[in-house]
């Protein structure tokens, strides 16, 4: 039960409220400088904990008790418990779906769509399919993206345009996949259901990706396209040699979709999908499972159970001899989600301290002083998310900080929280890769071998989506008010 504010508690000044934020930005910048694209795997979490300490000191100085601050931290972390459970289920699902050949089948069919006459558009579509299947833009770029860049280089194509097509497709999947950590994070921070969030993003994401693919197709008509696809053929052959490929392996995907359509909550739906993947692995990929376990002392039934069990908690590791394929399909398991869970908890810890001590409210009030209506609120959210990407150099922070800052305002204006979650992704998730010093921009430039400023003008999807979101806000398209029942539910959470 919350306690009444103590009489000695003082409202922080703007300088006091900004002190932890400036401290956090400095630490995050140092984290990116020292650790590069590995900064989100631990260094940023330490930065968040230290910044939380600075915020707590400001709160203590203004008369807040440690007990009240601790309760604020607990409230902040507790709001993400649903997302944490979903992320664990997602990790298990990725592990068993790779082991069962489900993800390899999706990648196989995606690669088969490539046609030499439409390289840029096909590259965008293929990366979108792979990224939806894996939930990771980084994995997509680091595997399929490398192969596609190799083809583009061999054919003398525009590498900035090729990288833009790869990144556009990769971030479409990163934004729309239920397996993506940023998708789960945005829904959790805004306080909406995962699949409600994904369905609502279709309004802005669908026209953005369609326009992007059209632009890439037009570029393919103007520029020459590759005449050979040897690298892709090698990848397809490697998939066929390692897994049984067939349309029947897409049944677990259909099962999860049916459960979602029937409004089953995300956690049990994804967990059932993961368990179904384990059954499919034992039935259709027994040799792959046995090779993964590699324990002759176990009988075949026991080894199959151990392999599926291991995939649930520790993911799958492929050793095919094809480095690109091994990198693409060696992932998953609940354990793989632990750094993301750690990041979410520490980010919500920082937000909880800032919120409970009134510092977040002061910053939000200054930003919101320029907001006059729903359209300007959405625009302010888009600009704040992009600004956080520029300043904090991390896409997770671009979701968490604006989400915490604007959540109460969306509720006060009786806007469904799915608008906030969609807007956070429309700017936070996909603009991170356009900034050279952001972890995502640095990773893509290094992985694809194309400078950020060279590919950024051709990331059509990443550039268009925030503009479409702003237009929707100003035109009041797909804006849904929060009904009384939802208002009460949100207020009590």
The end-to-end distance, rounded to whole angstroms, is: 13 Å
State the order of secondary-structure elements, H for helix, E for strand.
HHHHHHHHHHHHHHHHHHHHHHHHH
User: How large a portion of the residues is in β-strands, by DSSP E?
Assistant: under 5%
Q: Percent of residues in helical segments? A: over 70%
| Rg of Cα set | 23 Å
Chain-averaged pLDDT: 84
Largest sheet: number of strands, sense, barrel closure: none
Tally of helical segments = 25
User: What's the overall geometry?
Assistant: globular
Tell me what you see in this structure.
Helices cover 74% and strands 0% of the residues. The chain has a domain at 82-336. It has 25 helices and no strands. The longest helix is centred in the middle third of the chain and has 29 residues, at 194-222. The chain has 493 residues and is mostly helical.
């Amino acid at each position: 039960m919350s306690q009444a504010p103590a009489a000695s508690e003082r409202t922080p000044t703007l300088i006091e409220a900004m002190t932890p934020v400036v401290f956090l930005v400095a630490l995050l910048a140092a984290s990116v400088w020292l650790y590069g694209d590995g900064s989100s795997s631990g260094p940023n979490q330490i930065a968040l904990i230290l910044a939380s300490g600075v915020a707590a000191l400001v709160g203590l100085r203004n008369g807040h008790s440690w007990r009240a601050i601790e309760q604020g931290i607990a409230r902040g972390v507790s709001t993400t418990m649903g997302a944490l459970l979903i992320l664990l289920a997602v990790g298990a699902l990725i592990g068993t779906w790779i082991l069962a050949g489900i993800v390899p089948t999706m990648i196989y069919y995606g690669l088969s769509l490539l046609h030499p006459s439409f390289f840029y558009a096909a590259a965008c579509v293929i990366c979108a399919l792979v990224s939806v299947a894996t939930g990771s833009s980084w994995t997509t770029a680091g595997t399929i993206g490398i192969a596609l860049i190799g083809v583009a280089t061999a054919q003398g194509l525009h590498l900035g345009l090729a990288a833009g097509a790869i990144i556009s497709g990769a971030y479409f999947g990163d934004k729309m996949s239920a397996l993506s950590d940023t998708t789960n994070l945005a829904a959790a921070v805004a306080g909406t259901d995962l699949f409600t969030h994904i369905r609502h993003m279709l309004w802005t994401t669908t026209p953005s990706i369609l326009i992007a693919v059209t632009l890439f197709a037009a570029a393919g008509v103007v520029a020459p396209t590759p005449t050979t696809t040897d690298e892709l053929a090698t990848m397809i052959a490697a998939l066929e040699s390692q897994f049984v490929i067939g349309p029947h392996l897409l049944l677990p995907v259909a099962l999860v979709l049916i459960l979602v359509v029937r409004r089953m909550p995300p956690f049990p739906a994804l967990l059932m999908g993961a368990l179904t993947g384990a059954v499919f692995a034992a039935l259709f990929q027994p040799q792959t499972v046995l090779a993964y376990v590699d324990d002759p002392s176990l009988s075949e039934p026991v080894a199959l159970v151990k392999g599926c069990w291991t995939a649930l908690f520790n993911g799958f590791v492929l050793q095919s001899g094809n480095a690109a394929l091994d990198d693409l399909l060696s992932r998953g398991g609940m354990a793989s989600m632990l750094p993301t869970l750690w990041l979410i908890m520490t980010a919500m810890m920082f937000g909880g301290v800032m919120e409970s001590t009134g510092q977040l409210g002061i910053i939000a009030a200054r930003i919101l002083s320029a907001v006059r209506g729903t359209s300007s609120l959405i625009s302010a959210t888009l600009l704040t998310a992009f600004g956080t990407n520029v300043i904090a150099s991390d896409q997770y922070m671009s979701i968490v900080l604006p989400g915490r800052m604007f959540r109460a305002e969306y509720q006060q204006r009786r806007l469904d929280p799915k608008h906030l979650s969609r807007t956070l992704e429309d700017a936070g998730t996909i603009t991170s890769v356009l900034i050279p010093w952001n972890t995502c921009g640095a990773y893509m430039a290094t992985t694809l071998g194309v400078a950020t400023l060279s590919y950024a003008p051709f990331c059509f999807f990443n550039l268009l989506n925030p503009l479409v979101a702003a237009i929707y806000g100003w035109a009041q398209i797909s804006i849904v008010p929060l009904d009384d029942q939802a208002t009460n539910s949100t207020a009590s959470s």
